[in-house]
Amino acid sequence: MTVDTIAGAFLATVKAIPDTIYCKRPDISLACGQAAGAIQTLADELRVDVQGKTAALILPNSAACLAAYLAALFAGAKPPLINLGCPETKIQKLLGDLDAAVVLSDKTHAGPPIRILNETNVQGLVRPVDLTTLTDSGTTNNNAAIMHSGGTAGLPKHLLHEARADDPDLLGK
After folding, report:
1. I need a labelling partner for 59 at 20 to 30 A (CA). Which of 135, 144, 155, 163 fits?
2. Taking residues 17-30, what's their average pLDDT?
3. For residue 2, how many other CB atoms are within 10 A of its CB?
4. Long-range contacts: 15-20, Cβ < 8 Å, 24+?
5. Domains of the chain, start order
């Protein structure tokens, strides 16, 4: 099986092994099929507002962040990752420069509409996935995100960053 996008790789995994663990942490545990249902629910919620636009992510390395990233891709959005360690003034500048249609974050920020996401409300989004309507609308030009696994304590070792993001402002340097 050949896939060309991040969303396509996730979708292929869900189709092949839906009962495989997607994420397991002390505060959340989802199989791939459950995660796909939550991602589809969020993508359907976001699509009308973000299709062809930017949906900025300001989230810690978490199941919620990966669900948000994939949901944005399935909704047809461009999902830049903003370093949550940036000062609020820099975050506001980045959001303005990106012309974000929505911000997916675990806390409020001034500016575009905010969709609050965390492990608890991602679990609340779980519905049976409809694989006939969960389709990859991306292209091979979409960015990939690198997520570093947590240590034995389950805490992230690193922040998220986009594979192509060599802009110091996006990396918060």
Report:
1. 135
2. 87
3. 5
4. 15/131, 18/129
5. 6-126 (3.40.50.980)
Q: Which residue has the tokens 């979708």?
A: 11
Amino acid residing at 111 = G
- Tell me the C-alpha distance between 165 and 145, whole Å: 9
Position 66, amino acid: L
Q: What is the pLDDT of residue 139?
A: 59
110 falls in which pLDDT band (50, 70, 90)? confident
What is the rounded CA–CA span in Å between residue 137 and residue 109? Answer: 28
Helix axes 63-74, 6-16, angle to 10 degrees: 110
Select from 158, 149, 113, 45 the least CA-distant residue to 105.
113
The set of residues, in sequence order, having a beta carbon less than 8 Å from that of 152 and lying 6+ positions away, is: none
Residues in the chain: 173
